[in-house]
Amino acid sequence: MAKKTFENALARLEQITEELEAGELSLEKSLDKFNEGIALVQFCNSSLDEAKSRVELLLKKDGQLVTVPFAEEDSGD
Fold first, then answer.
1. What is the dihedral of CA 16, 18, 20, 24, to 10 degrees?
2. Whole-Å CA distances, 59 to 28, 39, 52, 70
């Protein structure tokens, strides 16, 4: 089994959405797909939160580029 990645999860979520929108699944299968979709959304949100916490912004201070953790962007300066 391939490692679960954000891109793979998002592609699968798009596929599930198309299947549900087609309206050709039974109620039970639709609920199964919906539950799978919810789990994928949670995985994607977790991946995005992790990426967000690692983002650094480049700021120019005194002619030098410095990195600042994303969470410190709004420091009120």
1. -120
2. 52, 37, 17, 11
pTM tops 0.90: no
pLDDT in tens, 66-75: 777 666 445 4
Q: Give the residue from 44, 45, 42, 18 showing the smallest Cα distance to 30.
A: 18
Ranges of residues in the chain whose predicted pLDDT is under 70: 1-2, 55-63, 69-77
Output DSSP code: residue 2.
Answer: P
H helix runs in the chain, sequence order: 6-22, 27-54
